[in-house]
């Protein structure tokens, strides 16, 4: 069980994305783990072959517990055609008959062998490789299809509803009672052997949901909300307890930046137009590269500067709580790329599908409450990071430039920084760099 | 008349209860006679027929040679000819010598004669372990006989059944095999007042309960009742069902109990594989699947020839602690 955040002590395995026998490479997504905050895709740390899965979906394990055994990569036995899996003549015949490309079929048999059921479960490719000759058809009863090509592709299994490994273990009586009471067995915690749901579990769930059966789902959501609240609270309390924050604030003239943006957007279709946030994030990332004392981690009583800027972006979640996943190497992204990454990140954060590295890697975090109408935000640092940049709303203000008063768009940028890692002068350099970078938007 | 009254009110043993049932049958119907190895002058290898030779004479209490196939065959012939023979076989292990007569003749003749030839024969035999008699005298092969269509198989587990099952068995127009568990003969107790013949179509609930059904028969009934007492101390209220009739099985009583308790442990001294316990378990899942709240548990004899050494013999047989453990697994 990997630590998917500084605040994580345990996680619940939601889903395996690999099976015993699968070859995996470092970085492959192998599982989905639920933390207090979100469902996160876990990347594999090693190259090799999945030997055994040790933990059933739905199990909560402490950080550091073993989830699976990965053995050494299997030597390629099929040197001539490594991509063609081992199949029996019957399976090859069925596949040919139904137009299934065996190279794309996931085998569930021993050693990843493709079974007849795997072929039957597969949707046919667009063009069957061969249509059966008519005389063959006449020898077969027409009402015994040997494959079921009409079956749609298997939807991604959700815990508790699918077949196979994620099927809910429940006694026959418990199932019957659940159907009668209209209770979703996936939401019932089992106390029987191997976590099987028994009648008394269903009765307990029914009693808990007594006001109306329909509250079973919201009750679960409330539980999630509470754990999220507690996780955020624990982390922020730790931050305020351990980190001596200092705060700086400056107001940045965005006249040049907004003007440039308007010019640029005029030439672009609506979908590709940039928003001020992209400029602000890019500038925040570049400024962090200029002032490396603020970009990194405070661990074991000393600061370690990070070699790259992975810009954490605080994302408020619907229903409360927040996460701050990283935009990796934000300094190297073009503005359109950064916009696209931001949009993707926010939508995945809200749907609860973040990658592990995105939750663990941020080296400095930006919180932007401008869209909420806030003019200045003095944030709390995410341990073990050492700085947090706060951005307010872009507002028009009377502003003196070169001795003349004008109406200019301005933004209040703040910095919360860890006094153990840096001093106010360092923080001041950061805000100055941010200001300077935003005056030359064309270079961002 | 030298008829003695059934000993009601005073303590009797299982052995005496069977003897009393035999005596009653011999008195009630002149066509009834007892035959088997050592039943006459020796008084029965298990002491059941002690005194009956003096009382009823050698024509009705007949010693036979050690020839199970021959004297069971003779019993079948006598039954076809109009008598009501009761054949005693010393142990179920020896009865295998007569299995051909029982399966191929007694159980089959009514069918093969188009309903013309009934075989109203009663065969009594001892079964089971627990007395250090080793592997050739100790097995529980009731399941072999419960497998055979055309016969009825009874297993009296209580004094009352030992006393009052014989009369309905003799009334049955078809062959009836009665299994008396060897460990029961010395069990003593007070017979309740005559409640009339036992209903040999029905299993009996020996102890009502709500949390789990312990389903058993014969020599394991006492162990199941002991286990139920131990479970009661843990606030697990076990119901104990005595199958009593092993063929035809009383599905209604068994599934009715499981429908109330939602869990079952089947206890059978016989071997687990392809045994009576497998049949009971299958019927429960066939008929009460949607009432089950735990997998059906089985406590059976170890799959070895029954050992002679006391410790090994005890270890090979279902014991109350095994039943308690299985029940706890099921209740969780």
TrEMBL record, chain B:
Keywords: Oxidoreductase, Thiamine pyrophosphate. Its cofactor is thiamine diphosphate. It holds the Pfam family Transket_pyr. SMART domains: Transket_pyr. It comes from the Bacteria. Residues 12-187 form the Transketolase-like pyrimidine-binding domain. This is Alpha-ketoacid dehydrogenase subunit beta. It comes from Kitasatospora cystarginea. The lineage of its organism: Bacteria, Bacillati, Actinomycetota, Actinomycetes, Kitasatosporales.
């Amino acid at each position: 069980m990997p630590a998917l955040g500084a605040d994580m002590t345990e996680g619940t395995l939601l889903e395996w994305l690999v099976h015993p026998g699968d070859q995996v490479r470092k970085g492959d997504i192998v599982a989905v783990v639920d933390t207090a905050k979100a469902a996160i895709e876990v990347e594999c740390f090693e190259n090799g072959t999945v030997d055994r899965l040790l933990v059933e979906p739905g199990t909560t394990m402490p950080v550091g517990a073993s989830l699976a055994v990965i053995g050494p990569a299997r030597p390629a036995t099929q040197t001539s055609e490594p991509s063609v899996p081992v199949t029996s003549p019957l399976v090859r015949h069925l596949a040919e008959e139904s137009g299934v490309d065996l190279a794309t079929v996931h085998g569930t048999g021993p050693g990843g062998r493709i079974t007849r059921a795997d072929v039957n479960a597969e949707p046919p490719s667009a063009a069957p490789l061969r249509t059966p000759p008519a005389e063959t058809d006449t020898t077969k009863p027409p009402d015994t299809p040997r494959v079921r090509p009409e079956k749609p592709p298997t939807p991604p299994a959700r815990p508790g509803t699918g077949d196979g490994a994620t099927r809910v273990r429940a006694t026959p009586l418990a199932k019957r009672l659940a159907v009668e009471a209209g209770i979703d067995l996936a939401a019932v915690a089992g106390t029987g052997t191997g976590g099987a749901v028994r009648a008394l579990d269903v009765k307990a769930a029914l009693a808990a949901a007594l006001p109306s059966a329909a509250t079973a789902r919201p009750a679960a959501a409330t539980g999630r909300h509470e754990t999220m609240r507690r996780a955020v609270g624990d982390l922020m309390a730790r931050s305020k307890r351990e980190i001596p924050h200092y705060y700086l604030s400056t107001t940045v003239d965005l006249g040049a930046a907004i003007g440039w943006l308007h010019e640029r957007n005029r030439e672009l279709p609506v979908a590709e137009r940039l928003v001020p946030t992209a400029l602000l994030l890019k500038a925040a990332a570049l400024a962090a590269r200029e002032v490396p004392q603020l970009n990194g981690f405070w661990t074991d009583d000393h600061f370690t500067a990070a070699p790259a800027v992975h810009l954490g972006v605080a994302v408020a979640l619907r229903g409360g709580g927040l996460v701050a996943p990283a935009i990796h190497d934000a300094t190297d992204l073009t503005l359109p790329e950064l916009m696209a990454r931001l949009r993707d990140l926010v939508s995945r954060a809200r749907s609860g599908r973040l990658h592990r590295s995105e939750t663990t890697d941020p080296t400095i975090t930006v919180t932007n409450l401008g869209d909420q109408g806030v003019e200045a935000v003095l944030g709390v640092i995410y341990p073990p990071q050492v700085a947090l940049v706060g951005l307010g709303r872009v507002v028009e203000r009377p502003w003196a430039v070169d001795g003349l008063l004008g109406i200019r768009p301005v933004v209040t940028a703040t910095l919360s920084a860890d006094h153990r890692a840096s001093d106010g002068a360092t923080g001041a350099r950061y805000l100055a760099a941010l200001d300077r970078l935003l005056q030359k938007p064309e270079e961002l | 008349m030298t008829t003695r009254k059934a000993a009601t009110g005073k303590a009797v043993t299982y052995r005496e209860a069977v003897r009393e049932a035999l005596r009653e049958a011999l008195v009630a119907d002149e066509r009834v006679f007892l035959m088997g190895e050592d039943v006459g002058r020796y008084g029965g290898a298990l002491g059941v027929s002690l005194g009956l030779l003096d009382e009823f004479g050698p024509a009705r209490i007949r010693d036979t040679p050690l020839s199970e196939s021959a004297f069971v065959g003779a019993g079948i012939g006598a039954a076809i000819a109009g008598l009501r023979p009761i054949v005693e076989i010393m142990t179920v292990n020896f009865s295998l010598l007569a299995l051909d007569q029982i399966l191929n003749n007694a159980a089959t003749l009514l069918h093969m004669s188009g309903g013309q030839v009934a075989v109203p024969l009663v065969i009594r035999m001892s079964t089971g372990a627990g007395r250090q008699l080793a592997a050739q005298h100790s097995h529980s092969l009731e399941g072999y006989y419960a497998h055979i269509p055309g016969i009825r198989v009874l297993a009296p587990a209580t004094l009352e059944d030992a006393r009052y099952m014989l009369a309905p068995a003799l009334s049955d127009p078809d062959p009836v095999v009665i299994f008396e568990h060897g460990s029961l003969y010395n069990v003593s107790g007070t017979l309740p007042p005559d409640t009339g013949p036992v209903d040999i179509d029905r299993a009996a609930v020996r102890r009502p309960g709500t949390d789990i059904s312990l389903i058993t028969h014969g020599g394991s009934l006492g162990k199941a009742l002991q286990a139920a007492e131990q479970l009661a101390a843990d606030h697990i209220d076990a119901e104990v069902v005595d199958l009593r009739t092993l063929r035809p099985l009383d599905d209604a009583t068994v599934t009715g109990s499981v429908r109330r308790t939602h869990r079952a442990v089947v206890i059978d001294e016989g071997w687990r594989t392809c045994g009576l316990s497998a049949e009971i378990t299958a019927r429960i899942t066939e008929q009460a699947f949607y009432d089950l709240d735990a997998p059906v548990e089985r406590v059976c004899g170890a799959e070895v020839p029954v050992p002679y050494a006391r410790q090994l013999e005890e270890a090979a047989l279902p014991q109350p602690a095994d039943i308690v453990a299985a029940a706890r697994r099921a209740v969780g």
